[in-house]
Write a structure and sequence with these properties.
Strand content: 25-35%
Number of strands: 6
CATH architecture: Beta Barrel
CATH class: Mainly Beta
Structural class: alpha/beta
Largest sheet: 5 strands, mixed, barrel
Number of domains: 1
Distance between the termini: 67 Å
Number of helices: 3
């Protein structure tokens, strides 16, 4: 009698495991997706949330993150707020109405957003007032968007 050996399959890559976790759980049981991308982000001068506390208010910064919330409160006179999650925390973004309208196609439906703007650090409450936005969703191909958007 001949014994047939089961095929040996390659181990999934770290990215494949992250994708599986996000599809099944909505989060990663391993590293955060941006931790995997951090060397590429760092080469572009993009800071982590953790880094912002050491930077002077009014400085021009670039941050990135997975879009977790977009809020457009009726009482905010057209201002839109976003939350971008990186591997160290949540980046709070403020979009003035003109910037939001100009960048709308790069914001709505985006999974990974890069925002450049002025840092506001008032008594430890940190925001980035957006001036420029770039959609980097192609870097997280197939990662589902889990944003809660309120308009």
């Amino acid at each position: 009698m001949r014994v047939i050996q089961p095929p040996t399959l390659p181990r999934p890559s770290e990215w494949e495991e992250i994708l599986r976790d996000y599809y099944q759980l909505g989060l990663s049981t391993g590293r955060h997706p941006l931790a995997v991308l951090r060397p590429r982000l760092r080469s572009l001068g993009i800071l982590r949330r953790r880094d912002l506390g050491t930077i002077s208010s009014g400085s021009l910064v670039s941050v990135s993150g997975l879009v977790t919330h977009l809020q457009h409160p009726q009482t905010a006179k057209g201002v839109v707020f976003a939350s971008l999650e990186d591997e160290t925390g949540i980046n709070n973004i403020i979009f003035w109405p003109g910037v939001f309208e100009a960048e709308r196609p790069n914001i709505i439906g985006t999974t990974l957003l890069v925002v450049s703007g002025l840092l506001q650090n008032e008594q430890g409450v940190i925001h980035v007032v957006a001036q420029r936005v770039e959609d980097y969703s192609h870097w997280v191909d197939r990662l589902p968007r889990k944003s809660r958007d309120f308009h």
